[in-house]
Structure formats: structure tokens, C-alpha cells
Design brief:
Layout: H1 11-22, H2 26-59, H3 66-112, H4 115-120, H5 123-165, H6 167-175, H7 177-214, H8 216-222, H9 225-277, H10 283-325, E1 346-354, E2 363-371, E3 375-379, H11 386-393, E4 401-406, E5 409-410, H12 416-420, E6 423-426, H13 437-442, H14 450-459, H15 463-468, H16 486-499, E7 504-508, H17 516-529, E8 534-538, E9 550-555, E10 558-563, H18 565-571, H19 574-582, E11 585-587, E12 594-596, H20 598-602, H21 612-619, E13 623-627, E14 632-634, E15 642-648, E16 651-656, E17 662-668, E18 673-674, H22 676-681, E19 688-691, E20 695-701, H23 702-711, H24 716-734
Parallel strand pairs: 3-8, 3-9, 6-7, 7-8
Antiparallel strand pairs: 1-2, 1-4, 4-5, 9-10, 11-12, 13-20, 14-19, 15-18, 15-20, 16-17, 16-19
């Protein structure tokens, strides 16, 4: 739930927020105000001393003595200079403390927000608030706020002096001030709105740059440089227009106010000159009055030209800051949480419904029970709801209907901290922070001793490798763990999960990105560490769940089958189909080579009508190819030269719609095949295939494939069905509405 932050943040609102920010640092603020007051008193005394000097000159008297006046000025200058430098130093210290408070508050809020917020928000927009907007707020809280105090102190000191010197001129100057307030009131809302639009647009540009940098592999592979450059140029053109509007609106506020101040100064000078000419005001009083008026006018001019625009910009920054601070997590702890002992009986889903967007259900009427100490797995096609189920167990989201219970306690009735303290999680992509191996493992239990960290590493079978490194446990892993291999990163993630001695071990595609040899070794480690714990795995690779106590088969957000491996195979349902699709391959330990068996080929529609002898001949013609994660196998529009079977891994199918934007069509997994349409129709590729994980494929070249079709015409009916389905998918894509860019 999000609070409304569409109101305009005016000058008073910004100043009130600044006062609140200064309150914890009141002692420092008092010292700074004292320094400002000393500076202001000196300026007032300097102006008033002109009256004494001029009157002495005109009267021919030396009362008070000129030497005393000059000595007082010199002493005042020294004191004012010391106050100036001291005040600047204290202001610098205050700025650091004030913005430290704001940054801590913002960071804490970002950590408290739910996963759904980060799915909805763009990272670049969040980062721009942490940088550019905070700079605007800092200027408002320090420079503008202190200048406002200085000007206010100046008015408190100088207005009585002006009225003392000549009350009629003083009233004339004061009565003209409402003109400035009226002008500001008319111009401020437009300037504030224009500045907010500028900050929003700058955030969008930052996000575009960040996406372009992070997606360089895709940019290069798809040749997207011209497309991104054109899109970025459009954004810059829009930003330029917004900058013009914002800057002009801010300048207009300052210039109108400063012109009115100048007009008041001219008016008061003219009236004062006439009064002095007619003898109703002494020359010394006129000079002193104009001197003090000059100080007040200068302060007012600076306020109009610099302080007001700074406060306007700070108001925009505060508005964008509050859009985060007023955001409420979608998952919140209950006010009076129940205790949650260590899991002893079961985890239960009771009539659970869930939707990410509310438009369609991602899970519907899920009912299942996971016994404490069991090893269970969620399997099914891509997008079936496997990972969503795991997210509900972690309580990253709350169900729309039904309950998720731990030992009959609804997990919404306990704190998220207490719930997740029982869990250790290993993801497919485990983020390692750019620090040491020791600290990456210790993250799950910050108070853990070095001995406990090393024991966890030994349990994860990574200790020997760590101590072989030049710096051992103090070795830096690099950004996102880039200095380690995929298997090493996974074992460190396992050590991190085990360090907290979890009752529940959650595995989300934990080994899908590893080569077969590493995967088998890691699975053995997980099986050993899972003894005595509840192990919940989400995977698309069925070979890793054969020994599970219970397998839950998901399809289209529903639980369609459940049982052991043998039970599910005997049922002949979806699990049996997935198993048949994924088996029949022989893969080398390094995951670089594979061979397909005749019986596996026979399960494919393309080859279902061939004899075993013919299938053996076909199998011998396949060659192996290996691709890294996020690599493009082929681009849309490229010449079709091979037919592919996906032995291991996941790939994404993308195609450009009629607007030239790449759209996601589907995800293919172990056992799927692709690429035959371009071969059969002798046309360019009609889609792009990009790997999501490291992939091993076996391929047939164009010549071999076409020879097979010519030699075995029995393949044609199945091929025609496949071509028709793909053409229907592409036709549906072209009918889609334009994307929201």
C-alpha cells in the first residue's frame, strides 16, 4: 500500500522538515546560530557606524571618538571572521550528520520493503533518489535553512534599528514586503511541480543507462546499439525540454522577487532623499538607514535568488524521498506475533490462492502437507508455480486466500524474522557480496565464530579449496563472486545456509547451472546435510528428485499430481511425460558432450514413425555444443543452419513484435527441441534463442536434417504440425498491443 505524496512541498513545509532534522543535533545548531548572529550583528554595527562617522564629520565634533569607532570596527571584524570560519566548520559537521540520518532512514526503509516493491520499481529510479535527490535535500537542510535563519536574525536585528533611525521609511520598506510574498505564492507551485518532473525524468534516464550497461551481452548479441541510441536520444530530447521548463520556473521565482526588492530599495531611497533634502532627516541617519537597508535588501535578494530556488528543489527531493519512506511493505508482521518453535510436525498449504498482479491467478486452491524431516520437491513446466510456492513458504508474499501453516500456526501470525530464522536457502543464482569468503558465509549468522564458519565450509565440502587460496578465508570473492566458479559459489552458498543450523533447507534450482559432475557432487552434499532437516527443492531437472520422499507436480498454478518417483511414473501423467522427455541422454561429466539414444528420439513427434534401426542412424549424426548462461544461440533473422535438442539447461524464446520490441514467448527446458522451422521452410530464423542457464545441446546440420526428411518422409506430418503451431504463436504476437516503454 502506498501513501499519497502528490502534494506540493512548499517553502514552509521544507523548513519544517529541516527543523525536525536538526532537532537531534540541537546543540550543534545553537552554536551555528550563535556564529550567524555574530556575523549579522557585525554587519548591523558596520552600517550604524556610518551614521556616527558622518554626523561627527558634519558637526565637527569627535563624540564618540573616531578612534573608538574604528577600534570597535576592527575588533568586530576579527570576531566576525572567527565566527564565520567556525560556523562553516560546524555547518560541515552538521551536514554530514544530517544526511547520515537521512541515508540511514532511507536504507532501513528499503530493507524493510517487500520483494513486490522491487519487482514494481526500477532500480535506476531508486538509485537516483539516493544520489541526486539527497543532494537537493542536503542543500535545503543546510545551506538554504541556515541562510533562512541568518536572514531571519537579520530582520530581528535590523528592522528595530531601521525603525529607530527613521520609522516612516522603515514602515514603507515593511509594507512593500507583501508584494514579494504574493509573487512567490503565485509562482511557487509551478516551480515545484516542474522541478519534481525534472527529477522524475532524470531518474528514468539513469535507469535507461543502467539497463544498457547491465545488458551489454544482450545489446552486443542482438545488435541493439542503434535501437538503444535512438531511444536514449528521445529520452534526452524530452529531458532537455523538462530542464528548460524547470530551470526557467525556478529562475522566474527568484528574479521576480529580486526585482521587487530592487524596486522597494529604489522607492525607499527616493523618499529618504526627499526627506533629507527638506531637512526632516539628517544626512547621517539617511546614510545609516540606507546602509542597513542595503544589508536587508542584500539578504532578501540572496534569499530570493538562491535560497528560494534551493528550497524549491529540496521540496522536490523530499517529495521523491517520501514516496519511498511512505511506502508500506506488502508483507508486514502482525502487531502481536505468536511464538514459533522449531518446526516439529509439518508445513501445510490449505486452499491457497495467489496472484502477483491480481489479473490472473498464479496459484489456485493449493492443498498439500510437507512432513517435518521429509525431503520433497516441486517440479513442473516453466511458469507452473513452483518458485511461487517456495516464495510463499519464505513469506516473500502473502496468499490472497487460504493459509500457509507451520505446525498449524498461520505464518502471518509470526514475525518474518522468526520464520526465516528456521530456514537456510540456496538459490540458482546465489549473490555473493564483494567481500571475503569468511564474511559471505557469516552473513547468515553475523555472531558466528571463525570456527563455526570453517565448520560450515567443511560441511559444504569447500574448506579444502578455501585454505588453498593465497589468503584463505580472507580471500576476496570479487563483485557478485566473479572470482569463483559456479560450483564454488554454490558451495559457499550452501555453507552460508548451513551455518544457521536451519530446520528447513530450501533449494531453488540450486544445481541447474552446474555441469553434471559438479551437480552430482553438490547434490550428494545437499543430501548429506539434509538429513534430520526438512528439505524443499524446486527444480525442473527430475533426475535430482528421484530419492525425494514426496514430489509435487505443478501445472498452470495447480497441484496436479503428488507422490514418490515410482508412484508418479506408474500413473503415466504429467510427471511421466516430463521424465520421458528428460531421459535417454548420455552426458559427459564435464557437461560438454552428449549422446541421444534411439528410444529417446522415438518419443519425439518428428521421429516417432521411424524404426529402431533408422533411429540409431539418426542418433549417430548429432553433434554436441555447449553455451554459457545468457548467451545467444541464434538471432531472429539469421540463416537457419541447424536443428537443436536441449539436453540440459533452459533457454528463452524471444521474437520481435510489429513494433520491433523483443517479446518473451516461452521457456524451453531439458528435452525440448527447436530450430526446425527455418530448416524446413528455407527461411530466416523467426525467433531468437537465448540461454538462461549454461546449456548443452545436440544439433543436426541443415544438410543432415534435410537428408533425413527426404529419406524418411514419415517425419513430414509431425513437422507440419510443429510448423503450424509456431506460426500461430508468431501471429498472436503480432496482434499484441504496443509495449509500454
Amino acid at each position: 500500500m502506498k501513501s499519497d505524496t502528490n502534494q506540493t512541498y512548499g517553502l514552509l513545509a521544507v523548513l519544517r522538515r529541516a527543523v525536525a532534522a536538526w532537532r537531534p543535533h540541537a546543540r550543534l545548531g545553537v552554536l551555528i546560530v550563535a556564529a550567524l548572529l555574530v556575523q549579522q550583528l557585525f554587519q548591523t554595527f558596520l552600517a550604524y557606524s556610518l551614521k556616527l562617522i558622518v554626523d561627527n564629520v558634519q558637526s565637527g565634533q569627535n563624540d564618540p571618538p573616531l578612534a573608538l569607532i574604528l577600534a570597535a570596527l576592527l575588533l568586530g571584524f576579527v570576531v566576525a571572521m572567527a565566527a564565520t570560519f567556525g560556523g562553516e566548520y560546524l555547518t560541515a559537521r552538521a551536514a554530514g550528520r544530517l544526511m547520515g540520518d537521512v541515508r540511514r532512514q532511507l536504507f532501513a526503509q528499503l530493507q524493510a520493503l517487500s520483494v513486490a516493491y522491487y519487482v514494481r520499481m526500477k532500480l535506476g529510479d531508486i538509485l537516483s533518489r539516493f544520489s541526486g535527490d539527497l543532494k537537493l535535500i542536503e542543500a535545503g537542510y543546510t545551506q538554504a535553512f541556515l541562510n533562512t535563519l541568518l536572514i531571519s536574525l537579520g530582520l530581528l536585528v535590523n528592522v528595530p534599528v531601521m525603525l529607530y533611525l527613521e520609522w516612516r521609511l522603515g514602515l514603507l520598506a515593511l509594507l512593500s514586503l507583501p508584494l514579494i510574498l504574493l509573487a512567490n505564492r503565485r509562482l511557487m507551485p509551478g516551480a515545484a511541480a516542474a522541478t519534481y518532473d525534472l527529477n522524475q525524468t532524470e531518474g528514468a534516464v539513469v535507469n535507461t543507462v543502467q539497463e544498457a550497461i547491465r545488458a551489454q551481452l544482450v545489446v552486443k548479441a542482438f545488435g541493439l546499439q542503434p535501437t538503444l541510441a535512438a531511444r536514449f536520444n528521445d529520452e534526452i530530447d524530452h529531458l532537455t525540454g523538462v530542464i528548460v521548463q524547470s530551470r526557467f520556473a525556478i529562475v522566474l521565482v527568484g528574479k521576480v522577487a529580486s526585482m521587487l526588492i530592487l524596486l522597494i530599495q529604489i522607492l525607499v531611497t527616493a523618499v529618504g532623499a526627499l526627506m533629507a533634502f527638506h531637512g526632516t532627516l539628517s544626512a547621517g541617519s539617511l546614510v545609516a538607514f540606507l546602509g542597513i537597508l542595503g544589508v536587508v535588501s542584500k539578504d532578501a535578494y540572496e534569499f530570493a535568488k538562491k535560497v528560494i530556488p534551493t528550497l524549491v528543489q529540496a521540496g522536490s527531493g523530499l517529495r521523491r524521498l517520501d514516496e519511498i519512506l511512505q511506502e508500506r511493505p506488502s508483507v508486514m508482521d502482525t502487531a502481536v506475533p505468536q511464538p514459533l518453535p522449531r518446526l516439529a510436525q509439518h508445513i501445510r498449504f490449505a486452499d491457497v490462492d495467489f496472484s502477483y498482479t491480481g489479473a490472473q491467478m498464479n496459484l489456485a486452491q493449493i492443498n498439500l502437507t510437507i512432513g517435518a524431516g521429509q525431503s520433497v520437491a516441486f517440479v513442473g513446466p516453466s511458469g507452473s508455480g513452483k518458485s511461487t510456492t517456495l516464495s510463499l513458504i519464505l513469506r516473500l508474499y502473502d496468499p490472497l486466500g487460504g493459509q500457509v501453516c507451520f505446525d498449524d500456526v498461520d505464518i502471518r501470525q509470526v514475525t518474518q524474522g522468526a520464520l526465516r530464522a528456521q530456514m537456510g536457502t540456496v538459490f540458482q543464482d546465489n549473490y555473493l557480496f564483494n567481500t571475503t569468503i569468511r564474511e559471505n558465509i557469516r552473513l547468515s549468522r553475523p555472531e558466528a565464530s571463525d570456527a563455526a564458519v570453517e565448520a560450515a565450509a567443511q560441511a559444504a565440502e569447500i574448506h579444502d579449496l578455501i585454505i588453498s587460496l593465497p589468503h584463505g578465508y580472507d580471500a576476496q570473492v570479487g563483485e557478485a563472486g566473479g572470482r569463483l566458479s559456479g560450483g564454488q559459489r554454490q558451495r559457499i552458498a550452501i555453507a552460508r545456509a548451513i551455518l544457521r543450523d536451519p530446520a528447513i533447507l530450501l533449494l531453488d534450482e540450486a544445481t541447474s547451472a552446474l555441469d553434471p559432475g559438479t551437480e552430482a557432487a553438490v547434490n550428494q552434499t545437499i543430501a548429506r546435510l539434509g538429513q534430520g532437516r526438512t528439505v524443499i527443492a524446486v527444480t525442473h531437472r527430475l533426475a535430482s528428485v528421484v530419492q525425494a520422499d514426496q514430489i509435487f507436480v505443478m501445472q498452470n498454478g495447480r497441484l496436479v499430481e503428488q507422490g514418490t518417483h515410482q508412484t508418479l511414473l506408474a500413473q503415466g501423467g504429467l510427471y511421466h511425460q516430463l521424465w520421458q522427455k528428460q531421459t535417454g541422454f548420455e552426458v559427459s561429466d564435464d557437461g560438454r558432450r552428449a549422446r541421444v539414444g534411439p528410444r529417446r528420439l522415438q518419443q519425439m513427434h518428428l521421429f516417432s514413425n521411424l524404426s529402431e534401426e533408422q533411429l540409431t542412424a539418426v542418433a549417430d549424426q548429432f553433434a554436441s555444443e555447449h553455451y554459457a548462461a545468457h548467451e545467444v544461440i541464434f538471432n531472429e533473422g539469421a540463416a537457419g543452419d541447424r536443428f537443436y535438442m536441449l539436453v540440459r539447461g533452459q533457454v528463452e524464446v524471444l521474437a520481435n513484435d510489429k513494433y520491433g520490441v523483443a517479446r518473451h514467448l516461452e521457456v524451453l527446458e531439458d528435452g525440448d527441441h527447436f530450430g526446425e522451422m527455418a530448416l524446413l521452410q528455407n527461411k530466416p530464423r523467426n525467433a531468437t534463442i537465448k540461454t538462461l542457464t549454461p546449456c548443452l545441446v545436440i544439433t543436426l546440420g541443415r544438410e543432415q536434417f534435410n537428408n533425413l526428411v527426404a529419406y524418411f518422409p514419415e517425419m513430414l506430418p509431425a513437422i507440419e504440425q510443429r510448423v503450424a503451431r509456431s506460426e500461430n504463436n508468431l501471429a498472436a504476437l503480432q496482434r499484441q498491443d504496443p509495449p509500454d516503454l
